[in-house]
Design brief:
Blueprint: E1 31-37, E2 43-50, H1 55-62, E3 71-74, H2 78-87, E4 90-93, E5 102-103, E6 106-107, H3 109-122, H4 133-145, H5 151-159
Parallel strand pairs: 3-4
Antiparallel strand pairs: 1-2, 5-6
Helix pairs in contact: 1-2
């Protein structure tokens, strides 16, 4: 759900203690986060805005980062099929709404697990402003890629103090 946390001038009536979306699933009341993840755990995520995914959004987000010989495994959303057909990318579908969790060797559980961990982690902040959502996604990505980071390393990275390697 879109959050205007900390905003002084709201374009809607204020809600006490947040509130829930009135529509289920991805609607114009919720912010969509597109996640692409491979088997090795490399993750790409994009805040695509409010509402459902569209082919132009997928083209803008995924086309620059996917190879032509890549295989995209997705849920049964027809937008992914249209995108893959237009871009010439191989596509496999796993229809979760029909109870299909696996299609041969293909599944989307890696992405679903990432979403779950991200949502659970966001609960600690009691909601974040939508404009800062890309920052939180990057922060979570850093945790996912480097699970054993020391607090000092994170603090130095946040301050821009990187230890550069010198080649001799």
């Amino acid at each position: 759900m879109e959050s205007d946390k900390g905003k002084r001038n709201l374009e809607r009536k204020a809600r006490k203690r947040g509130g829930n979306a009135t529509k289920r699933g991805i609607s114009d009341e919720q912010v969509c986060v597109l996640v692409a993840r491979d088997r090795s755990g490399q993750t790409l995520d994009f805040v695509t805005g409010k509402g459902p995914l569209t082919k132009p959004l997928l083209t803008t987000s995924l086309k620059p980062v996917l190879d032509v010989d890549a295989l995209l495994v997705s849920d049964a959303n027809p937008t992914y099929m249209a995108f893959c057909h237009a871009e010439g990318i191989s596509h496999e579908v796993v229809n979760l709404s029909q109870g299909q969790r696996v299609n041969g060797a293909y599944h989307v559980q890696n992405v679903n697990a990432y979403h779950s961990r991200f949502k659970q982690w966001l609960e600690h902040f009691h909601g974040v402003a939508t404009k800062y959502l890309p920052n939180y996604l990057g922060w979570r990505r850093a945790f996912e890629q480097h699970r054993q980071l020391a607090p000092e390393t994170l603090l130095n990275a946040a301050l821009g103090n990187f230890q550069y390697l010198t080649v001799t």
